[in-house]
Structures are given as C-alpha cells and as structure tokens.
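Narrative of accomplishments. A recurring question from our advisory board has been how the design workflow behaves on a single, concrete structure rather than in aggregate. To address it, we present the structure tokens for one chain from the evaluation set, followed by the sequence designed for it. No filtering or post-editing was applied between the two.
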C-alpha cells in the first residue's frame, strides 16, 4: 500500500470527523452531484422547448413535403409557393361567392325517349 498524499488524508479526516467543515464539504459534494444528475433533465427540457418553438416556426411544403422556415415565401426544394392558408381561404371565399343554397335551386329533369 502506497503512501497517500496529505491532501487525501485531510479530506478523509474532514469527511469522517463530525466537524462543520466536513459537513459543508459533504453538502457541497451533494449539491454538485445533484447538479450533475439534474443537468441532463434540464438540458433535455430546454432542448424540447427549443425544438417545439422551432417546429412551430417551420412549415411543410404542400408539394414536396420538405420542411423549412417561414422566412421564404417559396419552397427551397421544389420552388412552389408556401401560402397554402391564403390559397385555401381564397378558394373557400370563392366557393362561398359562387355557390348558392341547394334549397333555392330547381333542377328541371325532362324525360326523353331513347328508343328509336
Ligand atoms: Zn417543396
């Protein structure tokens, strides 16, 4: 058994003897261990929040399905326009303008003889 350096003996005495400095050292070690255990959880939560924020700012191309940020008006992969919500709203308003209620429409059906 090799000779231990005096610092190891000092730390061992501080940990073994019930002194306030030993208790403080144990508290510090416990805090460090707690931080080391909680750090992956905290970083994982921050990463998850960041991913959700990034995902909310991204949009999927309706033509090719590639995702990109909303800064570009057209898809960087296929070049089609991203304004799907605008076109959907425009088409919906267009159909509202063009369509008439079915109850107010009369369909005239006339019978014709196809026998010759
Ligand atoms: Zn695309």
């Amino acid at each position: 058994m090799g000779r231990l350096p005096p610092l190891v003996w000092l730390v061992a005495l501080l940990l073994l003897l019930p002194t306030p400095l030993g208790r403080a050292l144990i508290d510090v070690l416990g805090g460090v261990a707690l931080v080391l255990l909680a750090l992956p959880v905290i970083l994982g939560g921050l990463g998850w929040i960041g991913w959700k924020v990034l995902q909310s700012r991204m949009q999927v191309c309706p033509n090719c399905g590639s995702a990109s940020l909303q800064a570009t008006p057209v898809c960087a992969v296929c070049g089609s326009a991203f304004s799907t919500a605008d076109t959907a709203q425009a088409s919906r308003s267009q159909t509202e303008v063009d369509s008439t209620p079915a109850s107010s429409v009369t369909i005239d059906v006339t019978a014709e003889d196809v026998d010759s």
